[in-house]
Design brief:
mainly alpha; 2 domains; 16 helices
Length: 460
Amino acid sequence: MTPSFLSSLRRILPLAWPVFVGQVAVMAFATVDTFLLARYSSLDLAALAVGAAVYVSVFVGLMGIVMAVAPIAGQLFGAGKLEEAGDQLHQAAWLALALSLLGDVVLLFPEPFLWIAHAGPEVELRVRAYLRALALALPAALLFMAYRGFNQAVSRPKAVMLLQLGGLLFKIPLSAWLINGGAGVPELGSLGCGLATAIVMWAQAAIALLVLKRGGFYTQFGLHARGWHRPHWPALRHQLKLGIPMGASIMIEVTGFTFMAIFIARLGPTIVAGHELAVNLVAMMFMMPYAIGSATGTLVAQAVGAGEPLQARRTGWHGLLFALALSCGVGAAAFFGREAVLRVYTADMTLVAAALPLLLWVWIFHMGDAVQTVAAYVLRAHHIATAPMVIYALAIWGVGIGGGYHLAFGEGAPPMLRGAPGFWAAATAGLVLAALGLSAYLGWVHRQEAADAVRPSPAR
């Protein structure tokens, strides 16, 4: 039976809203630390800014590799191969532990990042301590990503959301205590943030393991029937083949924003502060298409595994159209209410004035972001990630960063596109091109699958 648009939405939304809530909780981790350190010490806040940038640069790429378990286990779940799907979680856990060793080397020896940041001695000392604490957190964080990816594959996002919300509720008082000291604990400042994160991450990973062990739903996957599964190279190779380009794609997106901020910082503190307001706004708006993409990708992977290509195609396009319509409405609301929206962030009208010209670009940027996100998730559900990575590199690095630098600082650019608006215009153009490129590639994949379905099999 071919799903209608409304029937697709009725299947997407129950999977999407827990992802949205959980990701907002994850974003709040950084907000809590920033809020607390802003009231504690400017040096520790600076250390948090540098240290968090290093950690995110390491974590997001490795996270993308581990999350390859989601589309792989999703297809197996759709095909009814439940114990094979469960084995993929074991293999993803081994992969998470191996990748955490690689990531910890970078976190424990962050010299290249410190050289780029030009951090002073006092800040550098705090950054190193903060990153040592996060090196403890990384293995647990990546193990939790394996748990999250598996639950995404088998349509259990609420199990992840509850742990993410619980982690946030634990994180708030724990960070406040370790930052400011008390009850026999000295003031630790930014180090306290890192230790709090490590404790919360290991608590989440331990509870996730307990849920997998005690939850009756997971018995069908054979997770404990043979104990802890040994590393299986063919399965690990398959996860790496899909996961490495997935991780690289995420890194390209993150570095696109990072380099924008670095270059815009040359324009002065007021301009870069206005840019940061726009970035924070678009990051919050992104949580909706991210959730829709995650839910759509799950359903598409399950349909592909179940041998229902028509349902997979229709569900994928319906999710993409829903994300486009929703992002258009949200972007319009942000644009037409732009002054009120920006005043939620700050009462400083100088900063509001710096951010106001960017809100039109935020609207279009958000629409392109929504389409490319869902298209990428649907392609991953088909186990396709290398071509999207190439599209991302050309669109985000080539058009977004290269074009933005030319418009912002080059000769002959229109006056209205000089400075920060030039970077936003180019970044928006890059994301729109990525959205068009990924959507066109998805259409080509669907046509190839349809052609394969009707092509007569060779005579035996």
